[in-house]
């Protein structure tokens, strides 16, 4: 009886991080709060999202860095959280191709045109 080579191992999949399609849900120019426009508030809001294996938000998003210190900047932060929470999220994938939950940061830059 002849023994053949061992069966090949199952192919490994490259692990992929969780992602969000933020282009479809990011705040638009017309969403800019009027008070923030009047105050010429700009800056960058950084929000941490946790996504479950089903691609849904797992818990409330956290503001990691505010757009600034003023009340108008806080308006920008809250709007960014509200709008970006409406995004479609794709869970991460481990090296075996199984969906995994993950957290990641989204940076939103506020600028006046």
Give your account of this protein's structure:
By secondary structure, this protein is α+β, with helices and mostly antiparallel strands. It has helices at residues 34-38, 71-84; strands spanning 19-20, 43-51, 62-65, 89-90, 92-93, 99-100, 102-110. The strands form 3 sheets. Strands 3-2-7 form a 3-stranded antiparallel β-sheet, covered by helices on one side. A two-stranded antiparallel ribbon has the order 1-4. Strands 5-6 form a two-stranded antiparallel sheet. The longest helix is centred in the C-terminal third of the chain and has 14 residues, at 71-84. The protein is elongated. The termini are far apart.
Q: How would you sum up the global shape?
A: elongated
Strand content: 25-35%
Q: Give the topology string: H per helix, E per strand.
A: EHEEHEEEE
List how many beta strands DSSP finds: 7
Average of per-residue pLDDT values: 89
Q: Largest sheet, if any?
A: 3 strands, antiparallel
What's the helical proportion of residues? 10-25%
Which sequence of strands runs across the widest sheet? Answer: 3-2-7
Q: Give the structural class.
A: alpha+beta
Give the assembly state of these chains: single chain
Report the C-alpha radius of gyration, rounded.
Answer: 20 Å
Poorly predicted runs: none
**Number of DSSP helical runs:** 2
Task: State the end-to-end distance.
Answer: 78 Å
């Amino acid at each position: 009886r002849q023994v053949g080579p061992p069966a090949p191992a199952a192919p490994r999949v490259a692990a992929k991080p969780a992602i969000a399609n933020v282009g479809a849900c990011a705040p638009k120019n017309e969403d800019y709060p009027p008070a923030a426009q009047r105050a010429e508030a700009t800056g960058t809001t950084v929000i941490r999202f946790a996504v479950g294996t089903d691609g849904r938000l797992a818990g409330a998003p956290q503001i990691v860095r505010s757009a600034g210190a003023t009340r108008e900047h806080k308006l920008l932060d809250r709007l960014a959280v509200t709008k970006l929470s409406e995004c479609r999220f794709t869970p991460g994938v481990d090296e075996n191709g199984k969906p995994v939950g993950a957290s990641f940061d989204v940076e939103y830059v506020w600028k006046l045109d």
